[in-house]
Amino acid sequence: MTGGASPTAGAAPEPMVELRGVHKSFGDHEVLKGIDLRIARGEVVAIIGPSGGGKSTLLRCVNLLESVTAGQVLLEGTDLTAKGVDLNLIRRRIGMVFQQFNLFPHLSVLQNLTLAPRKLLKRERAATEERAHALLARVGLRDKAQGFPKQLSGGQQQRVAIARALMMDPHVMLFDEVTSALDPELVSEVLDVMRDLAESGMTMLCVTHEMGFARELGDRLVFVDGGIIAEQGDPKQVLDHPEQDRTRQFLRKVLR
Amino acid sequence: MLTEPVPANSALGPGFLADGGYQFHWGVLGDHLSELWDGLLRTLAISAIGMAGSVVVGVLLGGAAALRIPVLRTLIWLYVEIFRNTPLLVQIFFLYFALPDIGISLSGFTVGWLSLVLWGGAYNVENFRAGFQSVDPAYVEGGRALGFPRLATFRLVNLPLGWRAALPSVTNTLISVFKNSSFMIAISYPELTETTVNLVAVSFRVFELFIAIGAVYLALVWLMSLGARLIERRFAIPGGF
Ligand SMILES: Nc1ncnc2c1ncn2[C@@H]1O[C@H](COP(=O)(O)OP(=O)(O)OP(=O)(O)O)[C@@H](O)[C@H]1O
Ligand SMILES: [Mg+2]
C-alpha cells in the first residue's frame, strides 16, 4: 500500500514532496516556524492539530498557493521556490481538494472535469469525456455528469472535486479538511473515495479531523501546533501513546 | 370640444380652447413622421454604439481593475472618477467645443456616441469590477490549484460568474445611456428630442409631440428591461452560484 515508502536496494528513494525549513509569515504574524517534512512516493500522511496551528497554510505551501517566506519546497526533486519555476506547470502534478466547495458553479459536472485537461493539456474532447465518465463512476456519481454543482449534496460535490483533481493525473493529492463542511451522514461517502485512492497507491497529504481515518489509512500522523511539527510517527502510536503534552491535550479534546 | 378655439391674442398657447380645454391634433405626428423617424434612428444609432461601447469599456477596464494591474489600475480609477463626477453636459461640451481648439474636430454624431461610451463606460467599469470581485475566491482558488494561470482563471471563472452578478446594475446604466442620448440637444445634433423641439417650434403642438416621444422612450426602456430579464433567464445557472 505504501508503494515507494520503503527504501529500495539501500539507496534512499527521492521523496515525492519535501519541505526544508519552511517559514511562512503573514505580515508580522509567523504562522509556520520551520517545517521539515519528507513524504515518500505512495505515502499517506495525515495532518492533525488545533485550529490556527498552520495546517492549511502548510498544505497550501506545498503547491505554493501561499508563497513561503523562507525555506524550500521540493516536488520530485525540483525546487519549486527556485527562480524561473513555472508554478502553473507544477500545479498540474498536484491535485488539491478544499474544505469549501469550489467546483465551478456555471459548468456542469462533466465540464468541471474536462475543463483543465482540455484547456491545459490540450486533450481531445472525446477522450477526456470518456475518462471523466470513468472517474465519475469510480466516485459513485455515474449519473450526475450533466448535473450542476449546486444541485448536488456537499458529499457529492466533494467527490466530484476529487474526480476533477484526478483528471490531471496528479502525482500527489492534497486534502484540506474535505469532510469538515459536510453533514455527518455524508462524511463516509467521501472517506470511502479517499480510502480507494490511498489503496491505489496515491501519495496523499490529508489535513483531517477524522481520527479514525488517520488511524486506519495513514502511514504517518503529523501533529502540527503553533507553526511547527510538534510530534509525528505511526498513527496508532501517536494516537494511543502520544509523547508530547500538547499532543495529549489536543487528543483528549478531540477524542473525548 | 365644440367650443371656439382661443383667439390669437390669448394668454394660452395654440391648441387651447377658450374655456381652458385643449384640442389635440394628433395629425401633427403624421405630418412630420419622416423627421421624427429620422430623429429616432439617430437616437437609436448613438445609443446602440454608446451602449455596446460602454459594455466593452466596462468589461475590459473593469477586468483590469479587478485584477489590480498596477499603473493601469490608477489610470482607470482616474477615468472613472472624472467621468462619474462631472456633468454629462460638461463632457459633451468639452468634446464638441473644446477639442477643436487643439485640432480635434468631431461631428455631432461622433460626439453623440463617444460621449455616451465614455460616460456609460465609467459606470460600467464600476459595475463589472464589482461583479468580477464578488465572485467567491474559492472558485478562483479551485482554478489556480488546477494549474490555470491568473488571466485564464479570470476568463474562465470571474468573467462568466461576474457578468451575471453585474447584469442588473449594467442594465440600469445602459438604460441611462439610452435616455441620456437626448442630451445631444445641447450640440444641436438632430436626434429624437432635438428633432421634436424643432418641430414644436414650427407646429406649436407641444403636448402631442412630447407625449409621443415620451411614449417612444418609455416603450424602448421597457423593451430593454424585458431583454435583460430574458438574458438573465437564458443564462441562469442551474442550482445558482
Ligand atoms: N491569508 C492570510 N492572511 C493572514 N493570516 C492568515 C492567512 N491565512 C492564515 N492566516 C493565519 O495563519 C494562522 C494559521 O492558519 P491556518 O489556516 O493555516 O490554520 P489551520 O491549522 O488550518 O486551522 P483550522 O483548523 O481552523 O483550519 C491563523 O492564525 C490564521 O489566522
Ligand atoms: Mg485549515
Could you give a short description of this structure?
The complex is a heterodimer of chains A (256) and B (241). In chain A, strands 6-7-8-3-9-10 form a 6-stranded mixed beta sheet, sandwiched between helices. A 4-stranded antiparallel beta sheet of chain A has the order 2-1-4-5, with helices on one face.
Largest sheet of chain B: none
Question: How much of the sequence of chain B is in beta strands?
Answer: under 5%
| Helix-strand pattern of chain B | HHHHHHHHH
Order of helices and strands of chain A: EEEHEEHEHHHEHEHEEHH
What Rg of chain A is obtained from the alpha carbons, in whole angstroms?
18 Å
* Distance, first to last CA of chain A: 30 Å
Q: What's the CATH H-level superfamily name of chain B?
A: MetI-like
Going by CATH, the architecture of chain B would be Orthogonal Bundle
Which assembly state applies to the chains in this document?
heterodimer
Number of domains of chain B: 1
Number of distinct beta strands of chain A: 10
Poorly predicted runs of 5 or more residues of chain B: none
Which strand-content bin applies to the residues of chain A?
A: 15-25%
How would you write the strand order of the largest sheet of chain A? Answer: 6-7-8-3-9-10
Biggest interface, chains and residues, is: A-B, 32 and 23 residues
Descriptive key words:
heterodimer, A: alpha/beta, six-stranded mixed beta sheet, globular, disordered N terminus, B: mainly alpha, MetI-like fold, 0% strand, binds adenosine-5'-triphosphate, binds magnesium ion
Task: Provide structural commentary.
The complex is a heterodimer of chains A (about 260) and B (about 240). Chain A has about 260 residues and is α/β, with parallel strands linked by helices. Chain A has nine helices and ten strands. Chain A has a six-stranded mixed sheet with strand order 6-7-8-3-9-10, with helices on both faces. In chain A, strand 4 (about 70-75) and strand 5 form a beta hairpin. Chain B has about 240 residues and is mostly helical. Chain B has a single domain, classed as MetI-like (MetI-like fold, Orthogonal Bundle). Chain B is about 70% helix and about 0% strand. Chain B contains nine helices and no strands. Chain B has helices at about 25-30, 35-65, 70-85, 90-100, 110-135, 135-145, 150-180, 190-205, 205-235. Chain B is elongated, with a radius of gyration of 23 Å. The mean pLDDT of chain B is about 95. The interface between A and B is medium-sized, with 32 and 23 residues. Magnesium ion binds near residues 55, 56, 176 and 177 of chain A. Magnesium ion binds near residues 176 and 177 of chain A.
